[in-house]
Amino acid sequence: MEAAISLKDVTKRYGGFTLDHITMDIPRGCIVGLVGENGAGKTTLIKTILQLIQIDEGEIIIDGKRIQDLTPQWKDAVGVILSGVEFAARMDARQFGNCMRDLFSSWQEDQYERYLKEFQIDGRKMIKDYSKGMKMKLDLAVALSHQAKLLIFDEATSGLDPVVRDDILDILLDFIQDEEHTVLISSHIISDLEKVADYIAFLHQGKLRFYMDKDALLYSFGVVRCTQEEYRKIPGSYVRGVRKSQFGCEVLICDRERFEREYRDYTVDSTSIEEIILFHVKGEPK
Fold it and tell me: Of the four listed, 98, 153, 160, 242, which is most buried by Cβ atoms within 10 Å?
């Protein structure tokens, strides 16, 4: 599958933080969920792709071309929604659309009007008076009205109610029905990513801990609940984290299918992306 974005050893150093040699391909026609705790490097990674910050090492390739060789017009094909960034609060939606028309050479006014109607956005109401969910839908209307092929969301759905979030997820799923379209979305709401993401990238302390097909991720990991003695018999090559209590151990194991063949006395429970992440962050190594 051809990559829309390729990151090769991308590194950015700050005073007390390093985004550390990130290598990953973001396939065209997919939704990639970027997860990790606050300060893990998600926003930094997104800013490197958008050229808002310069990398110290590595290479970023967009549609087969090095990012430094692209003309500024490549961003016409990118729709970006960043958490906490608001513009034009004292405009209404139609005035805002007029500004976007001057900004994007590929702006489609008729499409923008269609999205305002579809999303039930009052084009005459001041943007400052919109709810958070309505502002998000306006941002989406803009992103989808200049022929964007790549959508990048950075925690943009945080704080939205479940109904609005579900609406947005449906829009993203519809967007990638075109195989030339791609979505990169960071979120703390892991359940949303479980619904729509094709791949999950997990950043922890600036390092890419895993980047996997979502279904393969959920299939390959499992949780064994056992006694301390039973835990000691599990080879360390299978263990990705353990949580101990007075009642026994919870063990995150990898290569679940092979483990179940070799250790039939153990029961392996299915897990979730959120639980896998918690084990990696808080679980003890063997």
Answer: 153
Sorted by sequence, the CB contacts under 8 Å of residue 179 that are 6+ apart come out as: 28, 29
Number of C-alpha atoms within 13 angstroms, CB side, residue 70? 18
What's the one-letter identity of residue 255? D
pLDDT tens per residue across span 196-216: 999 999 999 999 999 999 999
30, 182 Cβ separation under 8 angstroms = yes
Please state, in angstroms and rounded to a whole number, the distance separating the CA atoms of residues 248 and 236. Answer: 17
Two tokens, residue 191: 């359940």
Question: What's the CA gap between 158 and 170, in Å, rounded?
Answer: 16
* Contact yes or no for 256/222 (Cβ under 8 A): yes
Q: What angle do CA 269, 271, 273 make, to 5 degrees?
A: 170
What's the chain's length in residues? 286
Residues in the chain with pLDDT values less than 70: 1, 83-89, 286
CA distance 66 to 68: 5
- Closest CA relative to residue 121, chosen from 96, 100, 138: 138
End-to-end CA distance of the chain: 36
Residue 158 tokens read as: 């945080």
Closest by alpha carbon to 126, among 87, 88, 86, 91? 91
Entry pTM: 0.89
Per the structure block, which two tokens stand in for 225? 């609940």
